[in-house]
Amino acid sequence: MKKERIETGVPGLDxxxxxxxxxxxxxxxxxxxxxxxxxxxxxFIYSGVKEHNHPGVYVSFEEPVDNIxxxxxxxxxxxxxxxxxxxxxxxxxxxxxxxxxxxxxETNIKKIDAKRVVIDSISALGLYVRDVPDIRRMVFNIxxxxxxxxxxxxxxxxxxxxxxxxxxxxxxxxxTDNVIVLYYSRTGSQFSRALTVWKMRGSEHSNKLxxxxxxxxxxxxxxxxxAFSKL
Length: 231
Ligand SMILES: Nc1ncnc2c1ncn2[C@@H]1O[C@H](COP(=O)(O)OP(=O)(O)OP(=O)(O)O)[C@@H](O)[C@H]1O
Ligand SMILES: [Mg+2]
Prior knowledge:
Elements: E1 26-31, H1 37-52, E2 56-60, H2 65-73, H3 80-84, E3 88-92, H4 101-112, E4 116-120, H5 125-128, H6 132-148, E5 152-158, H7 172-175, E6 178-187, E7 190-200, E8 210-215, E9 218-221
Parallel strand pairs: 1-5, 1-6, 2-3, 2-4, 4-5
Antiparallel strand pairs: 6-7, 7-8, 8-9
Helix pairs in contact: 4-6
């Protein structure tokens, strides 16, 4: 029997991962700054409501939610009416109360019975919690909570250029089912974008590097093409 899949809403991406994400799975979306993590995750939430009637929660630790929503208007995604209908909640997390994080996530998910969740970003926790073991514990607890609540979730992690690990705290990739890596790399005088599916538990997936673009339609992955990139 074919497994049920959650379509990501990012054109070309589902083709790389066997049709979409597995329901209730946790995906780490990792890449350096400006690689389109916020845009593609907004696309996941927006298309979830518009195409599948999946309520969605977007938790932002860094960028003010009005910025995210305004930027998305350029792609034709107007979140306001969906928020008014109770289909989407954008929450800006107040980092001065780090211990409230679990309650904040759980309350908002339950409020609209969310099926899709984005946490943007796990790396930002490092700004507020200094102790790495504490952060790792938080990442682990957040992953348990999202699983318990049955959501299909994206955890964003921002990596540093030249960094060779997949995540900032070295634990994010282990507590998640799936890892998608976004690259922005230079060949000659040109920078280009490419992504790879690093792991996808329970799925056959592409192991190639595929180019993608950010345009006025959001993120589009060229799943039939391979990127030639020196990484
Ligand atoms: N309307 C647009 N058309 C084309 N490209 C755009 C548009 N808006 C943003 N971009 C591209 O998307 C990039 C920002 O994407 P996004 O905010 O999703 O990155 P990010 O990975 O979340 O970065 P950060 O880690 O800093 O939060 C910009 O640097 C720009 O290259
Ligand atoms: Mg971002």
